[in-house]
Amino acid sequence: MHTPPALEEATMSNVTVHDIIARARGGSSAMGTAPYPVGFRASVTSFLVLEIVLGLSSNLTVLAVYGMKTELVSSVSSVVTVNLHVLDVLVCACCMPLSVAVALLSLGADAPVVCCFHEACVSFASVATAANVLAITLDRYDISVRPPTVC
C-alpha cells in the first residue's frame, strides 16, 4: 500500500543554497550581506572604474574630433562609426555603473529589479553593437564590390 509522505516533506520551502551556507557559517540569511568577498569586489570595481574612465575619455575624444570636422561625417561608414562610439559612451555611462552597483552593493529586496535592468541594458548594448558591426560589414562589402569611380 501507498503511504502519504510526511508533512515536512510535502511542504515547499524557499530556502536557497545561499541561505543554508549563511546559516552554517553562523550568520543570518544572506540577503543582508554582500554576496562576494571584499577583495574580489575591490578588484572588479577598480577594473570597471578604469574601463569607464578610459572608455568615456576615448570615445568622447573621437566624437569631439568627428564633431569638429564635418567632412568626416559625410559617408555612411563614418556615420555608422559615430553611432558605434555613441553606443560605447552609453554603455560606459549606463551599463558599467550598474555593474559596479551589482558588484559592490548588497541590494536586498531591490536585487531582482537592478539585475533585470542591468541585463536589459547589457542585452540592448550587445544587439546594438552587433547591428552596427553588421552595418559596417555590409558597407565595406558594398565598397569592395562597387568601388567608387573617379571622374
TrEMBL record:
Pfam families: 7tm_1 (PF00001). Signal peptide: none annotated. Residues 58-151 form the G-protein coupled receptors family 1 profile domain. The keyword Transmembrane applies. InterPro entries: GPCR_Rhodpsn, GPCR_Rhodpsn_7TM. PROSITE patterns: G_PROTEIN_RECEP_F1_2 (PS50262). Its main location: membrane. This is G-protein coupled receptors family 1 profile domain-containing protein. The chain crosses the membrane at residues 44-66, 86-109. Keywords: Membrane, Transmembrane, Transmembrane helix. GO terms for cellular component: membrane. GO terms for molecular function: G protein-coupled receptor activity. It comes from Aldrovandia affinis. It is found in: Membrane.
